[in-house]
């Protein structure tokens, strides 16, 4: 084997990781949101994205319908640049079948 053939790198194909593809059960969805709330409680954009990930896992159209929102406004609110109102967060949480839970700090 020559030096050049030993050092040839094989091409590795990668794809973007999408957490929504791995959130299959209500328990997994709730655990994912809870992890965001515990680990990054001040990261409003991150928590909104986590809600968006869960909504994509469940189906955006279904979540939008159950939350009483248009699909476009739901995408916008839960995007990286979104800033959903607390009322929207509560509607989406209810549509996702998860509850926010308070504990003493």
* Helical content class: 55-70%
How far apart the termini lie comes to 63 Å
Poorly predicted residue ranges: none
- By DSSP, the count of extended strands is 0
Gross geometry: globular
Number of helical segments? 6
Instruction: Sketch the topology as an H/E string, one letter per element.
Output: HHHHHH
Global mean pLDDT: 88
Secondary-structure arrangement, i.e. CATH architecture of the domain at 30-98: Orthogonal Bundle
Q: What portion of residues belong to β-strands?
A: under 5%
**Rounded to an integer, what's the Rg over CA atoms?**
19 Å
CATH class bucket of the domain at 30-98: Mainly Alpha
Sheet of most strands: none
CATH topology grouping of the domain at 30-98: 434 Repressor (Amino-terminal Domain)
Secondary-structure-based class equals mainly alpha
